[in-house]
Amino acid sequence: MACRIGELVVGCREPEVLARFWCEVLDFVVLGSEEDGSVEIGALDGFGGSQSTIFFSYREEPEPGKSRLHIDLNPTDRDHDAELERLLALGARPAEIGQTGEESWHVLLDPEDNEFCLLRARIKPVPEPVPAA
User: Fold this and answer.
1) What is the C-alpha separation between 130 and 133, in angstroms, rounded?
2) Which pTM does this prediction carry?
3) 47 in any annotated domain
């Protein structure tokens, strides 16, 4: 049996800000929060359910340097250009990392400058999860 990614952990200064942003981007909900301000988000069926969760771990100063991990997104219910407009309206910003302009994806930044990409290919949406009991 193989492993499965249960959650992704992102060190950040403002977990609530990132949680709100990524909940809108991914159609996730807040699953819980910690006393230090850390916040976990995911699909309605929660941790271990239909999708990995994302845990925004409060850090006074996140690890310095460029992150070696980023999220790639694919549109599900609209075309690439419409999804790009939606992400920009939510607060994403274009990132300039040396693209040529010929790429089939867009490199963006979230509210704390974490890079992520919007890929062109559409994929099927995740089926509606059943809420955790």
Assistant:
1) 9
2) 0.84
3) yes
Cα separation, 106 vs 86, in Å, equals: 13
In this structure, the strands spanning 71-73 and 93-94 are: unpaired
Task: With CA atoms as reference, report the closest residue to 78 among 21, 17, 22, 27.
Answer: 27
Contact at 8 Å (CB) between 122 and 104?
no
Question: What domain range includes position 12?
Answer: 7-61
Which of these three, 26, 43, 61, is where a domain ends? 61
Q: In the chain, how many domains are there?
A: 2
**Average pLDDT per 10 consecutive residues for the chain, totaling 133 residues:** 84 95 96 96 91 92 76 91 95 92 90 91 79 64
